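We modelled the chain as a single entity of 41 amino acids. Its sequence is:
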Amino acid sequence: MSFIRTKILPIAIVGLFGVAFFAVSARIWLPGDMMSPAPIN
């Protein structure tokens, strides 16, 4: 349990933060028409 708390948990937190940061920064580089909602028809 101590191994998981000291090794795995920080890596998981940093990885989750990196994925969230990548998802937010990827929206900046998308063209404007891709950020708009999809057409209904």
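As a brief sanity check on the tokenised model: The chain has a mean pLDDT of 81. Residues 2-28 form one domain.
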